[in-house]
Amino acid sequence: MSELSSLDNDQPLLVAEGLAKNYGRLAACRDVSFALYPGEVLAIVGESGSGKSTLLQLLSAQLAPSAGHVAYRMRDGVLRDLAELGEAERRFLFRTDWGFVHQDPAQGLRMGVSAGANVGERLMAVGWNHYGRIRDTASTWLERVEIDVGRIDDAPKTYSGGMRQRLQIARNLVTEPRLVFMDEPTGGLDVSVQARLLDLMRNLVSELGLAAIVVTHDLAVARLLSHRVMVMKGGRVIETGLTDQVLDDPREPYTQLLVSSILPP
Amino acid sequence: MNAPTYNFAYLDEQTKRMIRRAILKAIAIPGYQVPFASREMPMPYGWGTGGVQVTAAILGPDDVLKVIDQGSDDTTNAISIRKFFGKTAGVATTTSTTDATVIQTRHRIPEASLHAGQVLVYQVPIPEPLRFLEPRETETRRMHALAEYGLMHVKLYEDIARFGHIATAYAYPVKVNARYVMDPSPTPKFDNPKMDNCAALQLFGAGREKRIYAIPPYTTVVSLDFEDHPFTRYRFNAPCALCGADDSYLDEIVTDDKGGRMFVCSDTDFCEQRQAAGHHGTESAAPHKEKAHV
Fold first, then answer.
1. What residues in B contact A123, CB-CB < 8 Å?
2. Residue B240 contacts by C-beta under 8 Å, 6 or more apart in sequence?
3. Taking the model in full, what pTM does it have?
4. Contact B150 A134 (CB under 8 A)
């Protein structure tokens, strides 16, 4: 029991060690190590082609690493290597304890079925078998992500870009995951919609105590959402630290360049 | 002109062996879709090429064959397949459900209860119940392998959200032996309960899709549903105009262009047996007021 009761915020939720991924001669990602703690939001920033998305796929076990490994603390408190999980376990993890928010909502949603069913799918996948309860939970989540409940029976293909992204977030959070991966969650949205989405995500993350790994090229997103930042360049992590520290006082020349390339408000 | 001579039941012995192996595997794993090397048959896809190959593979000289199409023994499809095996296998044919040992069917299960030793062969157009929800076959196979069937309930959810009840009326998904979710071919959901714990062996053949699956005798078959929206059978709430049966599945037949219609049993053998036993309906009998759930 002492093992279980020690399951608190002192132990890392996700541990990456020496992660690397090669595509032939191209090293998309090399020697990445870090630990993520419960409730912590980590931003991975860098320019296009720096290996951010590859790293996210390695962390979420969608890609097998060329070297290194990723371990995740399961709900029973045991830290397990993702590569050793069976496919069934990995997929179960993916639709219960994890969320994955894609840049393009069409990848994360079923565009042809109603919003209610999109949110309810994960519930039905874990055995919910009561229409009324599934629908109530879906309505609650639509409200939480500020989608008019009157549109619960509309398919996301009739939704605007911002609504789709919010629906995708609701669909991921309905099973109360502990860790959410986000790949450019605000990409392709206009500025006011971005602001609203960021505000929503920040509230949800703090309300639910979610840990999140956010991949973004937008430093403003990193500043608003994350506690810690990792800066990537050419597949390597070149700088890491507290968000304010890295963004206000960057050490590496490349980070300085990134920060200085933002237009002053 | 010399008529070509065929091997018994048209298919060559090697092909029949291959199909029998697929059938045995299908019986061993109830509800699992077994791939097989479907042959070209002398009929177009969609006319029962899968069912015909299964029938050809299991038919013996002593078998008595019955073929029905939407319950009827006397439609083009039923007659041509019955004649096909009459000619190529020389087996006895019948229209009586109880006398037949092999019944090939398109989209119905006979009303008369089946008995042990009988084989019901279904013609299946689309064997994959998840097809219209998940178009990737690689993905649906994985979902079957891992028994991830949440998606099937998404379809039922959509029905209720749109129509207020589960509006799927045919090809209603079932779970076989508490493991595989299966498409029972486009039979009306009225027939679903007949598949559960059935004494006869049920074989499903999809020719174009190259899949065979099976329900062995006395296997549990459960129609999927929600706790608060349970599975219901559906039939037109009317007596048969010919035999007066109040419990059989009915076809609606339009009789004129002024809205006239009559309801008759879709199972012709069942209807004829009842008429021979002295039951009569009234052709002018107006249908009961229609109810959604019976």
1. 150
2. B246, B248, B250, B263, B264, B265, B271, B274, B281
3. 0.87
4. no
